[in-house]
Design goal:
Elements: H1 6-14, H2 17-28, H3 39-57, H4 62-78, H5 88-97, H6 103-111, H7 140-182, H8 191-236
Helix pairs in contact: 1-2, 1-4, 3-4, 7-8
Biased composition (Basic residues): 253-265
Region (Disordered): 237-265
Length: 265
């Protein structure tokens, strides 16, 4: 069906019935037909005209009246050849209580394009480590005890490494001063007197270096002894196991048979 404009529908409604029917036929683009011999076309035109008039009498807008005529035309086309509608009252109630009840909501959702905002992120899944077998497992308290001992051993190793690093650094500074002293020419005029302060500085640097090394070694020795003492205390107090004691298998042991006493004759 050609969608009628609100102006055309208004012109059809304002005319008398027969004149309005003929104008509607012309607006639909139909050829003239005989009302008696072409009964199908006549009934079809009556249904469309009556639908438009019904909508106009109910006070609908002219655009809505044109839409009613289009719906009537589509209903005729869709129901052509059908034996009968399936309970039209139930269908009408359903559409009235669903689609037409929320008509504006459906129009908003169906006529407006949604703005889709998607964000993509790379998710790294860290698989948990494969657990150890049960016979290789330890209790929580035992594991904590072992971790404490390992931490004390690592701290002791770090203390020894720090002392060695300090010794190397102080010896390097001393070697630089000695090299500076030996680089001067002893035959040069005034060089002997000029080297006296430098020699004193080297001796002083040697003494300071030795003193700092001794202090660092003494301090590290006390700290290492303290760490060893803590390790010793931990080793003397192992955690108590919460597991039940193992019960020996009684069935594997053979009970000795009682010896029979020999009867005296």
């Amino acid at each position: 069906m050609v969608l009628l404009s609100p102006v055309a529908v208004r012109a059809v409604v304002q005319l008398q019935r027969e004149e309005g029917r003929q104008l509607l036929r012309e607006l639909l683009g139909w050829e003239p037909f005989d009302e008696v011999w072409d009964l199908q076309q006549s009934i079809r035109l009556d249904i469309l005209y009556n639908s438009i008039m019904f909508a106009a009498r109910k006070g609908l807008s002219w655009a809505a009246v044109a839409t009613v005529g289009k719906i009537a035309e589509e209903l005729l086309e869709e129901m052509k050849g059908e034996e009968g509608p399936l309970k039209p009252g139930i269908l009408c109630d359903y559409f009235l209580n669903t689609y037409f009840k929320h008509f504006h909501l459906y129009q908003f959702l169906l006529c407006h394009k949604r703005t889709v905002q998607q964000s993509y992120a790379t998710l790294e899944v860290c698989v948990p480590p494969h657990p150890l077998p049960l016979e290789a497992g330890v209790e929580v308290e035992v594991e904590k005890h072992q971790q404490q001992i390992a931490a004390l051993s690592a701290a002791e190793t770090q203390k020894r490494t720090d002392v060695l690093h300090l010794q190397k650094m102080l010896k390097a500074e001393k070697d630089i001063k000695l090299e500076k002293c030996s680089s001067q020419d002893p035959l040069q005029k005034g060089s002997l007197f000029e080297r006296i302060p430098l020699v004193e500085e080297v001796i002083r640097a040697e003494a300071e270096t030795t003193r700092e090394i001794f202090q660092a070694e003494i301090q590290a020795t006390f700290e290492i002894l303290e760490l060893r003492l803590q390790k010793k205390m931990l080793s003397l107090k192992p955690p108590v196991s919460n597991l039940p004691p193992l019960v020996p298998d009684v069935r594997t042991k053979k009970t000795p048979k009682p010896r029979e006493r020999k009867k005296k004759k």
